[in-house]
Amino acid sequence: MKKLVAGALAALVLAAPAAGQTLLPSDEQGTGEFGYSLAFSGDGKTLLVGGYKDAIGLGAAWVFTALGGTWVQQGPKLIAPDEHGTGWFGQSVALSQDGNTAVIGIPQENENTGTARVFVRSGDAWQQQAELNNGGAEDALGLGVALSGDGNVALLGAPKHNAIIGGAYVFTRTGSTWRRQPLVLRGRGELRSGEFGLAVAMSADGKTLAVGGPGDNSGAGAVWTFARVGSRWVAGPKLLARGERGHAEFGYSVALSADGKTLVAGGFRDNATKGAAWVFGRAANAWVQRAKLTAVAGPQAGLGFSVAVSADGTAVLTGGPAARNGSGAAWLFRRTTGGAWHLRTDWNGAARTGLGYGVALSGDGHLAAIGAPNDAGGSVNVVHV
């Protein structure tokens, strides 16, 4: 049984001084790959951690809260008691701004059809509120999940829908009842099997969506945006990565700032898998590429495998779990008042721990969570930045 380790950073080799804590689950079953997916509440005081390999692929998720400067596990792990088959519960996770609503993807459930579960917190207790489904057979619904700030709008990607062309579904909550909106979102101008929906993101007000399709155009990748106008979703432009080197799988990871005006998308195969992340800014209805973020990361680092952005869009955290032969790494970039982006801090994982599979940033951009799921069952490093 794992215990919480306070003040240790066993899976993290800091390239710059920082105080932090390594989180371990108390009730993991087997090597669960704890830390594969991560989500912070807006205030950075609640952290949701997915481990999709727990219990030989049933999966689980854990909630941690910050109490007096120390992170502690809140209650037992979350599971889907009615899960059908080994669904990989926890491969994707999302959390509302107040930390009281969680959406957890189960993309392999029911023979790869996929679903997601909604959990709500009352006091210190969590309970399942709803199952989100209605995807088609073998859609892998829930491989990507996102949630609005108030927790009342959920976006689920289904990248295997329609022969890997992909799709995405929007669900809304009224009271405690969830309903799927009838329109299936699709990638306009998608080239061949783009896996639209592999990664998804949503603004805090639930009115702006970003959907990645890394398989578009034989792996060059693309990102599509949508804006809610009344009760309708209006498709925005198809975004491509300027300066891409090779087939980067741009859109493998996506993140949106709280106001939906800054979009970050990773392409971990860029430049012979050194990887990169691209930053876009929105002015009116137009999206403009602002920067391509890279680092001296060595061959096959995979920067951009995971991305997170602060609420105001001025900080970006990205992970590259393949760096240094699977030890992994993470990089923090910040935007100056003049609009330029600079690498501020980076971390290297301990040997073959896969640091950077999952990353998350608090709303103010000063607290980072970095997952190392190959660290003997998994660990998460929470670091002040």
Please characterize this protein's 3D structure.
6% of the residues lie in helices and 44% in strands. It is mainly beta and 385 residues long. It has one domain (12-384): Methylamine Dehydrogenase, Chain H (7 Propeller), CATH 2.130.10. The strands form seven sheets. The chain has a five-stranded antiparallel sheet with strand order 1-26-25-24-23, with no helix packed on it. β5 and β6 (70-73) form a beta hairpin. The chain is globular.
How many domains is the backbone divided into? 1
Shape: globular
CATH topology: Methylamine Dehydrogenase, Chain H
Helix/strand/pairing category: mainly beta
User: What portion of the residues fall into strands of 2 or more residues?
Assistant: 35-45%
Number of separate helices: 6
- Largest beta-sheet details: 5 strands, antiparallel
Distance between the termini: 30 Å
At the fourth level of CATH, the homologous superfamily is: Integrin alpha, N-terminal
Low-confidence stretches: 1-10, 13-18
Mean of the pLDDT scores? 94
**Number of E-type strands:** 29
Helix percent reads under 10%
CATH class: Mainly Beta
| Strands side by side in the biggest sheet | 1-26-25-24-23
**The CATH architecture:** 7 Propeller
How much is the radius of gyration in Å? 19 Å
